[in-house]
Amino acid sequence: MIFNDRQRLNTIYVVAGLIVCRCLPLHAEDAPSAPLFPSTLTLQLLGDNGGQRDLYLALDLSLPRDLRLQLEGGVLRGGANPDDTCSMRVGFGTDPAGDFSTTGYYFNRNQSGAFVIHGAGAELVVYHRDWMLSLIPEFRTITLYTTELVHRRRAVEKVELNSQGVEFGVAYFGLSDWGLSLYHRFDDYSEDLNRLARYPRLAELLFSQGALNLAWGLDSSRTRFTATRYLASSPVALGLSVSNSHSAVVGSDYLSATLNLDWEFDPHWALSTSLGSADGGGGYRNAYLSMALLYQW
Fold this sequence. Notes:
- The structure is a single chain.
- This protein has helices spanning 6-23, 148-154, 194-198, 200-206, 209-215; strands at residues 40-48, 53-63, 67-77, 85-94, 100-111, 115-128, 131-145, 158-172, 178-189, 219-230, 236-247, 253-263, 269-281, 284-296.
- By secondary structure, the protein is mostly beta strands.
- Strands 1-2-3-4-5-6-7-8-9-10-11-12-13-14 form a 14-stranded antiparallel β-barrel.
């Protein structure tokens, strides 16, 4: 178990919820005349050398009283996935350009006949001079569907487990033309996922291929570091992200590195490109490319 005392994590959720409620504006006269951060619409395409393709659309809409509405959705297909995986996210919070911002969100991810994930969380962000601090507690319910053979003979249609996690982040922008950020996330599960690795043949008999693909991708922790270089007198920014994920199933590490290029070629339009590779050990390697077009107003 990552958290020896589960009540400590539950306390974080309660405090986060109270802070979110406390920070929402109560009076219309408290609202600024214009939003600090523009509304944005993003279309993203991602592909890898394993044949996986991802289409993603996101809307971050500015509302009256300095509030924000976030709507996101995507479809992943191909690769090791036997069927399409659909995802969606709905968030509501305050303007992210302020010294303190909060967002509460709900998300869903599912693959027909394989798995369903429901989750909710809260994102708390504080800016102080050249520093940024963030806290993101999150709760998930994960349903893995069994094979038709198990469903028919044992009358067991699905297996359910819960996951609680929290991510801490810190960023520094005091260096000339540079931005640095570091994030670390913990996840705890209500079931012992090591059993999938100890009894792989049994797991293949119990769960559908899509459920196994998801289960083997569940992490117990993840660390991510990003360095961004903002080019002087240019609308271009270059970045490098390095992350390390620790599997909750086999206990091995999953390393990835990504080169990022952001180009704001118009006051309303921007293009973001990412090229990366990942190494999961055991000879597994993956290369991927993503492109995102952003419109803001």
